Amino acid sequence: MNLELKRIEEQAVLSTRLAHRMLITVSVTALLFVYSPASENVLQAEVGELNQLLRLDTNALILEALERHDTTKTHLQQVRAVLGEYNLSLYSYMGLIEVDRSNAPPNMDQSTLDDIDNYFSSRSQLKISIATIDDALESALRELLEIVPGHGNMPARCQGVVSLKVSTSSNDLSVTCPESGGPYIRLPTTPHVETFAIPFDVLDLIAATPQSRSLVSEEGEDLVFLPKVRTVWDQVRLETPARARTILARQNSPEERTLQMFGLSVPQNLILWAIPVITLALSVYFLVHATYLCQLVERNPAVREYPWVVVMPGRLAFVVSTATVLVLPAIALVSSVITTWSSGGTFLHSLSLIATTAAMSFLVLCSLEFSKIRHSPALRS
Questions:
Q1: Residue 204: per-residue pLDDT
Q2: Residue 361's domain spans which residues?
């Protein structure tokens, strides 16, 4: 067995093998690019935190603060006791409460994150006025509740849950369903109103509520509001929560990826035609060398002894050769064209289809040339 190759024959084998390796590299790189998931920006957590902030019910926080204050808690218990006699539960107590606007919680739709943060982090008291449940108000409430359970103007879909509202300007008391209106009654006297300054530690209330607990984090003995948004605070601090969410969501879109290959950077929007054109160029280069190598083998069958799978005999070598010369590039071409089809217009579509068809034709010819090498009489002699 002759293991020595002439210099020109050795260079021919090396050049053809290099073209083969380049073809494999392009195909594998294209497949990894096409099927790797698009990496998302780390701001997804920040967007989620702002979504939760927009769902935060400040009225629920006020009610929780009322539950913690002895006097206001007594008012709640009185109302619930009356409603319980009629198998009703309280949906909202806010109709009996008026919060001093000078220290009311900020409006989430109009306030900036900076204003919301300043209020939540520093407010320690909340000034409120409550219509107390005296005999007159309780009597009027009972009169209204006589018609609530599926009677009069109160629809049955209340399902035993009602809201109360008292108007000190018109002396009206109303009982309503959460989703619709309901009956009201004119009070005989102006409701008695008491004013309280109750503790209102917003961050502590948020931390104690399971639905909103993730809006704060503990750092030692302190609670930090919006810990995830803090990482991009300078970008959004002067925006409303909704606007800040929009800004961060745009950054949260999958980033434009770039295919790195042979020292070249191919933007994602060029993949549609770049992969077929590069593969076409390599297939032409590969075919020229394969044709020349086939001619050399006819003169010197020792080329077959070179350690390269394409010229090795045997069924396994044939399968590997066909897979790397024909099947792998075909899958890479079709996958890249299908995946990036929407990024091009008519011209790019035509270019990619022509290049793909031509590349596959040349690769088929390459496969036939290597088949000739394996089955040449010189090799079998």
A1: 86
A2: 7-39+257-380
Amino acid at 380: R
Running DSSP on this structure, what letter comes out for residue 325?
Answer: I
| Residue 98: strand pairing partners | 129
pLDDT: which is higher, 35 or 355: 355
Annotate 159-203 with DSSP letters as a single string. TTEEEEEEETTTTEEEEE-TTS---EEE-SSPPPEEEEEEE--HH
Site of tokens 């209020």: 119
Alpha-carbon dihedral of residues 287, 289, 295, 299, nearest 10 degrees?
A: -150
Question: Do residue 32 and residue 80 come from a single domain?
Answer: no
As for how many domains the chain has, the answer is 2
If residue 21 lies in a helix (H) or strand (E), which one and from where to where? helix 7-35
| DSSP H stretches of helix in 300-322 | 315-322
Residue 168, CA distances (Å) to 3, 14, 173, 190 in order: 107, 96, 9, 6
89 part of a folded domain: yes
Within a domain: 240: no
Q: Whole-number mean pLDDT of the chain?
A: 77
Distance separating alpha carbons of residues 226 and 245, to the nearest angstrom: 13
- What residues are paired with 97 via a beta bridge? 130
152 and 285, same domain (yes or no)? no
- Write down the pTM of the prediction: 0.50
In a domain, 252, yes or no: no
How far is it, in rounded angstroms, from Cα 168 to Cα 49? 39
What pLDDT score was predicted for residue 348?
81
* 171 and 204 together in one domain: yes
Question: Which residues lie across from 219 on neighbouring strands?
Answer: 222
What are the two backbone dihedrals, phi and then psi, of residue 300, each rounded to the nearest 5 degrees? -140, 95
Q: How far apart are CA 117 and CA 121, in angstroms?
A: 6
Q: What is the pLDDT of residues 52-99, one digit of tens each?
A: 888 888 878 887 887 888 877 887 788 778 777 767 676 666 677 777
d(CA 151, CA 273): 72
Structural tokens at position 259: 């295919």
Q: Within this chain, do residues 269 and 370 fall inside the same structural domain, yes or no? A: yes
**What per-residue confidence (pLDDT) applies to 139?**
77
In sequence order, which residues have a C-beta less than 8 Å from that of residue 103 and are 6 or more positions away? Answer: 123, 125, 126, 127
Instruction: Determine the length of the chain.
Output: 381
